[in-house]
Amino acid sequence: MHVAKGKWLRLCTEIAVLALLVAVLAEYLRQPAGIEVGKALPPGKVRPQLVNTWSMAWLVAPDGSLWGWGDPSYFLWGSPAKPAITTLPQRIGSDTNWMSVAASINTALGLKDDGSLWTWGWNFQSGLAQRRNPAPTRFGTETNWVQVAAGAFHCLALKNDGSLWAWGQNGMGQLGDGTTNNRINPVLIGTNSDWGKILANQYFTSVALKTNNTIWAWGQLDVTNRLTPTQISADTNWLNAVAGAAGVLALKSDGTLWGQVPPKEALEQIGHEKDWKEIYSAVNFFFIRKQDGSWWKWGVIHPRDSRPRSLFLSLTDGGSLDYSHPPERCPFDFDPWAFAPGGVSDLVLTKDGALWEWGVRVGSGPGPARTKMGTLMAPVTRRFPDLGQLFEPTVDQQPYRLWELPPEVRRSLGTGPGSPTNSSTTSHPGDGSQVRRPD
Questions:
Q1: CB of 300 within 8 A of CB of 320?
Q2: One-letter-per-residue 3-state SS of 253-274
Q3: What's the CA angle centered on 158, arms 152 and 164, to 5 degrees?
Q4: CA 35 centroid distance within chain
Q5: What is the maximal distance between C-alpha atoms in the chain?
Q6: Beta bridge partners of 157
Q7: Number of folded domains in the chain?
Q8: 104-147 pLDDT, tens digit each
Q9: What is the C-alpha to C-alpha distance for residues 46 and 77, in angstroms, rounded to an integer?
Q10: Is residue 95 part of a domain?
């Protein structure tokens, strides 16, 4: 009787594994080879924003709602109430007044439309003022915050008076306060009040543009750490800049592209083209977009082809980091509503409300919680090896249509039953962002 029960259990397990494999194969075959975009949705009250870290991702939807997914072992984010691994976006709270979000490896920052600053995550090496926040928690009482950015373990924030503030880990001077002391609470960086844009991306470098279009950087910038904001070019026509482990990539208003990669200390022009439009940091390399809509990558070389790989796919498929070559053309052209390269995956929200991903799917990688679960299940997976795949990361070689904005978000944009007229929003010409019309 016991033997028959064991055989029955094994048969049921094998059937379940086979069904899972069939479902995975069917889903893979269903996916298109490239990014397909349907009819564009109307603009919302806020331009969508994606943030992609090594183990978590965040989305500010066009209706102002906040979403998160991945392995929250580092973050302990608040929806659901207890941390759970998920590969699909989950709504965080019910508020619809989020304007922007930034995230380091273990800390997230959010701004609401009333100028308030919110934080959640761990206080790893003083990355957050409160020791641990499982859900977004208001940071102070001020209502004059306008921008946020995050490095590996440090945070930057800008007020509407043009002042710059920083806190978190500071071992390489990435806060810019002239010391290497960690800071639990925001500290004012210098006395200038002409900062216009702040940038950081999961590394130990901080970059900013001033209102006079000069470019400044500090932290791990070159062979010598910079402890205070340092102007890295005398030019006054800088349009945008991004930072990462690779260094700094910057764009001028004349459409030229410039890069600074250690051990070099100065920005140097990359090529001679003058039609570059957008720049994005993928931590160790960069995505760049031209005015004709074509996409390019700089910093990683593929010996075989130029599929739209993430860094993980690039380096595990014969690629190598190399900044001595000019940017390479990517085989995919699309017009994103939001785009967020990450350490092991890349995310795109297209204007029809679909979320696409390629690389190691966020939430399926070897994060702390998944690794622990794999260890706990080791006795079972040793007996039934086919179950081991449940704890292996899911890798998408091609763009994968992961999710789409849910009905409640679409209704707020005027595309669902009972939706509002959406007459309270309008677009800024040329950049797709939205502002509220006066009541």
A1: yes
A2: CCCCEEEECCCCCCCEECCCCC
A3: 85
A4: 19
A5: 84
A6: 148, 165
A7: 1
A8: 877 889 999 999 999 887 654 444 444 566 788 898 999 999 99
A9: 23
A10: yes
